[in-house]
Write a structure and sequence with these properties.
This protein has 84 residues and is mainly α. The protein contains two helices and two strands; from the N terminus they run E-E-H-H. It has one domain. The chain is elongated and about 45 Å long.
């Protein structure tokens, strides 16, 4: 494990990387980014079957809110993600 500046929130911290990505992030940002990537993959899979799962959009919005908070954005994502 290495220590350095988080590529997402610019905090000095222990850094973690996601396989296949070059960025390194603190634990908190790492967890949010992993959640976003997992949700994205799940949403694409659901879309490919023609189904809709509105709760996935809600979870994605919550994860985006957490990431925005980590990088110092005060904006809250108030939009509905529609799966088609």
């Amino acid at each position: 494990m290495m220590k350095g500046i988080c590529d997402t929130c610019d905090q000095l911290s222990e850094l973690f990387q996601i396989n296949g990505r070059r960025d390194a992030n603190c634990f908190e940002c790492h967890v949010v980014l992993r959640s976003l990537l997992s949700l994205y993959e799940l949403i694409r899979e659901v879309e490919s079957t023609g189904r809709e799962l509105p709760e996935l959009g809600e979870q994605l919005t919550q994860a985006l809110d957490r990431l925005a908070s980590r990088v110092g954005l005060s904006h809250t994502f108030n939009r509905t993600v529609v799966l088609q």
